[in-house]
Design goal:
- With 254 residues, this protein is an all-alpha fold.
- Helices cover 73% and strands 2% of the residues.
- It has one domain: Four Helix Bundle (Hemerythrin (Met), subunit A), CATH 1.20.120.
- Strands 1-2 form a two-stranded antiparallel sheet.
């Protein structure tokens, strides 16, 4: 009998999803650093990079068959840092540090809403077990919340101006986005969207156009896309409620 124990080994490819998650954590932490140093544009870009990586790691793990409980917990912790802590901290040092209590209260509300959303999702996942991806989220997903909460920054960067919103209104906006993340309303998820073969070419052309717009007119494009997303959520809300009622499957928290 061999004294060497059989130890399961993972290839580097199978570790790639967790590597992406760790990279996203580093991006979120570095965003806070650059925000404290006053390099706000780079800080926002790093949070956006973390959101892209968040969209890739889970799907890649399932595609490679390397998803694990550790990976799921790591992803959840990364989401709180990147989308619950970093955006609020960035907005505070950018425009609200002179408001003291009011601005910090808004940041706390936003962060608590983000962590509450993630806790709700983790409890549901452990209680109900792993389930197929749903066509709807319950409330605004945390990566979308992080992107939307930075909308005032996109507008200010595009106009090359100081913060355009009064401190009180900006604080209300930050807290409001946080409340939308824990809302009990269905939000359409792009994860289950399917494109017919006849429309693939048009989809790719549109995707290329959006990518080029973001690369060339970064802040204007991000501001427009954020407004379109908010409008789409409001416009599709009645249909989402009817579809959810027919499906009777609880929306994912994501």
């Amino acid at each position: 009998m061999s004294s060497n124990r059989d130890v399961a080994k993972l290839s580097l490819i199978q570790l790639l999803p967790n590597m992406l998650t760790v990279t996203a954590i580093c991006a979120g932490l570095t965003a806070i650093r650059f925000g404290l140093q006053g390099n706000y544009e780079l800080a926002v870009q790093l949070i956006l990079l973390a959101a892209i990586l968040d969209g890739l790691d889970g799907r890649l793990a399932r595609a490679l068959g390397s998803d694990s409980k550790m990976g799921a917990e790591l992803d959840s912790l990364a989401d709180f840092l990147n989308f619950g802590v970093a955006p609020g901290m960035l907005l505070y040092v950018w425009a609200l540090d002179d408001t003291r209590s009011l601005g910090w209260l808004a940041v706390l509300v936003y962060a608590v809403c983000a962590v509450t959303r993630l806790a709700r999702f983790n409890v549901a996942r452990k209680t109900d077990g792993e389930s197929a991806e749903n066509a709807y989220f319950m409330g605004i997903p945390s990566p979308a919340g992080a992107i939307l909460v930075m909308l005032p920054m996109y507008v200010s960067f595009a106009m090359d101006r100081e913060p355009i919103l009064p401190d009180a209104l900006l604080s209300i906006y930050i807290a409001g986005i946080g409340l939308l993340m824990i809302g009990r309303f269905p939000v359409w998820s792009f994860k289950t969207t399917q494109i017919s073969q006849r429309r693939v070419k048009m989809f790719l052309v549109g995707f290329a156009a959006i990518g080029a717009a973001i690369a060339i007119y970064t802040w204007v494009a991000l501001a427009i896309l954020s407004v379109i997303y908010i409008a789409a959520v409001v416009w599709m809300l009645p249909g989402s409620r009817r579809a959810m009622a027919k499906d009777r499957k609880p929306p994912a928290d994501g």
